[in-house]
Predict the 3D structure of the following.
Amino acid sequence: MGGVVFFKTTIFGALREFYISKLGCEVWLEQPGICIVKHGNQLIGICKSNKADADMLLTFFYETRDEVDRKAIELGYSEGAKYNPDYNIYHFYTNDPEGRRIEIQAFEDKINPYKSGSEILKQRRSYREFTDQEVGQETLSRIFDECRYSPTSRNSESYYYVVITNQEYLAKIAKIRDGATVPIGRAKMAIAVCSDPEKTKRVQADADIAATYLLLAIENNNLGGCWITDLDRTEIKEMLEIPQNHYICMITPIGYTTEIKPVPERRESIDFVKYVK
Ligand SMILES: Cc1cc2nc3c(=O)[nH]c(=O)nc-3n(C[C@H](O)[C@H](O)[C@H](O)COP(=O)(O)O)c2cc1C
């Protein structure tokens, strides 16, 4: 879920430049005649037109067509959402109770991160089913760039990631622990999180945190992953050319997922905190 405030402009190029250069926005998505810029959690969409809007269009976007259809029913919009090939979106327009124009949509292009820190922490789930769509190098690099900030004991930076795309290896790992490892065989790619004992005395903690960072970065980049454990094994190290004394904390499959998962059910209250005065 997220939102964009859209408005039309007659000076598209100059306005785009103004928001990027003068206000420090980043380009979030570019389409013919449209530029969506991002400033923190603010997404602003500017659309080329022969008339400038003083009013804005409030666009609420969701991950999937199903969610857009559900919103259409909830909002009593009977005509049904439509696919718009110009922008590769699935959407419909409606009004708020005072008549302001609202758009409900799903982007069908791959979209860049937009979630708040709180949303990433609360919405992350384990995903075990994946589409065939490959994860591009740009997305992968963004994920690893976010993982650079994982803390380590004495800042040893003892962790590292091994990206596995060899389908034969993925299929072999998927069979190692029956049901528990099966999701690795359903993705086109998996990542092993490792650490080097020659760099740290805290091999397990460093790798555990690096694995947690990786799963949060995967969530932030709208992909799915799942912590799969008990894979610190001789045969896997031989296959992946990981030294035998190194530690494999976990392996996660990674990919675009077909699963829609709600926010997980967790403890009702913050009853796991003990205050000592
Ligand atoms: C240390 C650890 C080990 C896990 N091992 C596996 C595993 O071997 N296979 C698997 O499918 N899921 C595994 N999981 C995923 C958990 O089942 C999952 O995190 C838990 O059910 C909560 O669901 P959620 O991640 O969707 O919130 C593991 C998770 C953790 C933290």
Q: What stands out?
A: The helical segments are 12-22, 65-74, 117-123, 137-147, 167-176, 203-220, 234-240.
